[in-house]
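Troubleshooting log. The previous structure file for this entry was overwritten by mistake, so regenerating from the original sequence record. Sequence copied from the archived sheet and checked twice against the printout by T.R.
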Amino acid sequence: MKTFSIILALFFTSPVWAQDLDGAKQRKLLRTGGMVLEEIQNSPDQNIPAGLIAKAKAIIVFPTMLKAGFFVGARYGKGFASVRSKESGEWGAPAFLYTAGGSFGFQFGAEAVDLILLVMSQRGLEGLLSEKFTLGGDIALAAGPVGRHAEAAVDVFMQGEIYSYSRSKGIFGGVSLKGTIITSDIDANQAYYGKPLTAENILISNQAGEIPESGKQFIKIFNHLAPYKNGN
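Regenerated output below.
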């Protein structure tokens, strides 16, 4: 895995990336998202079970989603999603998203959270492609199983529609993702693809056109970190 870390770093710091015409912020977001997933998968006791991630229809990554609050909380972050090809099982071009939400109840403090969501069902995928997608609303959201022990019984957990995995970088009490809204970041998609595209345009309708070189490298990396399982 250490060797792969070096390869990943080379991918995202090579001159090819510097020459891309796509947005610098979006390249950085993809790079950070790849590193977050790699670090989580490199933690034997806290990683996402391979059998579960192999069956995911889509993956959503929000590196460094910010949360803060004093009894009334707020969340905001930028991220991206990718959908598996039904034919090959490989991840497709990334669509950029942003999230915002509020919550009530006991909470105090502030933190930055790396968030990964696995979309397991067709209904969850359709929700992701809607104009505004609310976590824990009509679609079930559950904390995902982690580690070696979960791997052996992963089929037991295959009843949820979306599984969440988060890694905290601070201190926060009473945090919940329920009510968080995920929306297409059309400005970010415009900066990256040169077109004002929604998540549906990119993930399902394949309207992105030529994928920037950084996007192709992202696909290679995620296919390595979250490979397809034959028979998915």
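The beta strands are 58-83, 95-119, 132-134, 141-143, 162-168, 171-172, 181-184. Archived copy saved in two places this time.
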